[in-house]
Write a structure and sequence with these properties.
The chain has eleven helices and ten strands. The protein has 313 residues and is α/β, with parallel strands linked by helices. The chain has an eight-stranded mixed sheet, sandwiched between helices. Strands 6-10 form a two-stranded antiparallel sheet. Helix 4 runs parallel beside helix 5. It holds the Pfam family adh_short.
């Protein structure tokens, strides 16, 4: 655990309804999580950053203008998350905003994806979100706070060669919808954020696979735009301030909701066409874990698994 005192309340925080409250962001070492932590700190929040890469996490926390705390924690570890919740409560106070952002992805054909890697994506993205909610709901109940689940347009229409990621993002959307109905009577708001192409290291490997590349290429030009993490964090912060039930990043995604029933058919048809065009050896290319954050999680997970295995002294 590492604490950064910050440099006082930022100028942008004056008059902000978020000022002085506590926010928790998982997956905050890099990408959207780090950018959102910065934006919430700019709004005057005390920010707790949870992530897997301690050094990277500390750098992200040290860069914030306000007071912050970073806790190196695996969101699949329920006990560790409960310890983190207690530490945050003691050092910063009870959370008013919790963002379940931690996520990893793997690309490639299902049959060529190792079962433990496929399962790890589900564990981090879906079970990790539920673990986060379980650990921090006592905070949010006391503060009548807001839980934001980071989902994706992968929940709109599942893409071949991204089965674990798409399954996990459809799962977190369903989880958040169910949770909303349970906790709203207690004054806790639940929002779902749908992110499209965002400039994180997770998407750097997407175009390495021919079918994924084709799926992206066949989208309308405006839909292929990659938005910066700064843009996305601004949209998310605006939604958090309003306790929005749905946040779309970019905003035009809201108009896709009525069209969702047709997306799976369109994506499947396009994918079949592209798969037929490619030789089997090319389609079998396994892009593996996407992004530095995902690789850091897998490396840490595999190291822990080896240490806890039957050969441990």
């Amino acid at each position: 655990m590492s604490e950064s005192p910050g440099s006082g309340r930022p100028r942008e925080a004056v008059g902000s309804p978020l000022a002085g409250r506590v926010a928790v962001v998982t997956g905050a070492a890099r990408g959207v999580g780090a950018a959102l932590a910065r934006r919430l700190s700019d709004a005057g929040m005390l920010v707790a950053l949870i992530g897997r890469e301690e050094a990277t996490l500390r750098r992200a926390a040290d860069s914030l203008p306000g007071r912050s705390l970073c806790v190196e924690t695996d969101v699949t570890d329920r006990e560790a998350l409960h310890r983190a919740a207690r530490e945050i409560s003691e050092d910063l106070g009870e959370a008013s905003v919790v963002v379940a952002n931690a996520g990893i992805a793997t690309g490639g054909p299902f049959v060529h994806t190792p079962a433990d890697l496929w399962q790890r994506v589900i564990d981090v993205n879906l079970t990790g979100s539920a673990n986060t909610a379980r650990a921090f709901l006592p905070h949010l109940t006391h503060t009548r706070g807001y839980f934001l689940q980071i989902a994706s347009t992968a929940a709109f229409g599942s893409s071949p060669l991204m089965s674990a990621y798409c399954a996990s993002k459809a799962g977190v959307e369903s989880f958040a919808l169910a949770l909303r109905g349970e906790v709203e009577p207690d004054g806790v708001g639940v929002g779902i954020a749908y992110l499209h192409w965002t400039g994180t290291d997770m998407i750097t490997g997407v175009d390495d696979h021919p079918v994924l590349q084709a799926l992206r290429r066949n989208q309308p030009r405006f839909a292929r735009t990659v938005h910066s993490t700064a843009e996305v964090s601004e949209w998310l912060t605006s939604g958090i301030t309003r306790r929005a039930r749905h946040i779309y990043a970019p905003p035009w995604l809201r108009w896709c909701q009525p069209l969702r029933p047709v997306f799976p058919t369109l994506v499947s048809r396009l994918a079949r066409r592209e798969l037929r065009r490619q030789p089997p050896s090319r389609v079998a290319v396994d892009t593996g874990v996407l992004g530095a954050g995902g690789r850091a999680d897998i490396d840490a997970y595999q190291a822990t698994t080896r240490l806890s295995g039957p050969d441990r002294p």
